[in-house]
Amino acid sequence: MRQMIGAAILFLVIFLHPATTRAQAGRLPQPQRGQRATLPAKPQPPLTLRQVIESLSSPRGGSRAEDLVSKRGVQFQASPAVLDILKEFGASPKLLSMIPVPPVPPPPPKPPAPPVAGALRVICEPKDCAVIVDDKYMGPTSENQKTLTGLHAGDATVEVFADGYEGVTRRIQLPEGKPLEEKFSLKPSRRLRQQSANESLLKAVASLGGIDGVAELGNIEGTGRMDWIDSAGQTQQWAMTFNKRIGKDLVMTFKTRDGQCSASILAQSAKQECKRGLKGGGEKIADQAVSLFLSYQLQDVIHALLKRTVLASERDQNRLESSDGKDSYVLTIGSDSLPVDLVYGINDGNAPIQVRYSNYLNLNSGRYPGRIAIGRSNNAAVWIFTVNSVRSRLARGQ
């Protein structure tokens, strides 16, 4: 079997490598008479694969092949296929080692360096944040900003995050060699918004006199003036006195030069009575006035919010928001932690009611708004209650 394989390989080698003639012109030319016969030195070319196989097949094949290869070299390289052929014809390890190894191919050229972007300036508000670019952590900002250099030009994904705030991910294009600035406005998380709202609400309670002060506001009496705008757009002024008890009980009396009206809400039962010039027309005004004045008493608004889930606005932690699907509150706390504005809405298709509180008066322990202006949101107030004096019956022991 081995002889048959060897004969087949030899046939392929002979077929692929034609025999090299020993003499190109047959016989050497005969020297002329009187001339000395000399043979020109002719360099021997490197051996072909066929010649090496022939030498291996001759007597003393192994040593003869080694001797020829050492003197003349070979025209081929030690590829795996060539080495297998030589081994089939009995080539020794020494002979195989004399066959030159193919040169190592050169390494592939290095890819060109990617273009470098200009400096990227990341700005985070309202607080410092951690910065990630293309899944690589770049560190935190300092004083709300961080400058990054050495980034590759082209598309990049920038992520910023901070404790208590929602993370922001943004896909940007980094221009080659040109600086770029990216601003990120972080939104507080729901947990942080609720925590901030509760803190602001408790500060408002403290500014109103704490628990004792707010309790005083539940049972008060006072005097003042009510300004309201009639259907003709004219401002009307009525002097007023009010007597509010704990709960939803309120009695108010209004006086003008033309007459007098009294209105009350006691145990959810409303009653109005007007005399002289206000009789027949003032009852509706008095009913609206007592209802509005009672509905937006500040201490009652605070109590309602303390029972609900309240969130600080994403942009202003002193703007407290609460909505349960049926109605909504937006209470704004001033720099002195006193409530200054309330927007209350219900799903009735009308614009929300806006109430502005100002000119706070001191009671024994608490503070009561000396001016309560009520109207539709983003419109001028239609009802303005100005309190000149207010007293708490709780403080008097009544």
Structure commentary:
The chain is an alpha+beta fold. Helix content is 25%, strand content 35%. It has helices at residues 2-16, 49-57, 61-72, 80-88, 93-98, 190-207, 210-216, 282-295, 298-306; strands spanning 120-125, 130-133, 136-140, 145-148, 154-161, 165-166, 168-174, 180-185, 187-188, 220-229, 235-245, 249-255, 259-266, 269-276, 311-312, 319-323, 327-333, 339-346, 353-362, 367-376, 383-392. The strands form 4 sheets. Strands 14-13-12-11-10-21-20-19-18-17-16-15 form a 12-stranded antiparallel sheet, covered by helices on one side. The protein is rod-shaped, with a radius of gyration of 52 Å. Mean pLDDT is 87; it is low at 1-6 and 14-28.
- Class by alpha and beta content: alpha+beta
What ranges have pLDDT less than 50 throughout 5 or more consecutive residues?
Answer: 1-6, 14-28
Strand order of the largest sheet: 14-13-12-11-10-21-20-19-18-17-16-15
Structurally, the number of domains stands at: 3
Q: What is the third-level CATH name, the topology of the largest domain?
A: outer membrane lipoprotein receptor (LolB), chain A
Question: What is the average per-residue confidence, as pLDDT, rounded to a whole number?
Answer: 87
Q: Strand percentage, roughly?
A: 35-45%
Order of helices and strands: HHHHHEEEEEEEEEHHEEEEEHHEEEEEEE
Radius of gyration based on Cα positions: 52 Å
Q: What is the helix tally?
A: 9
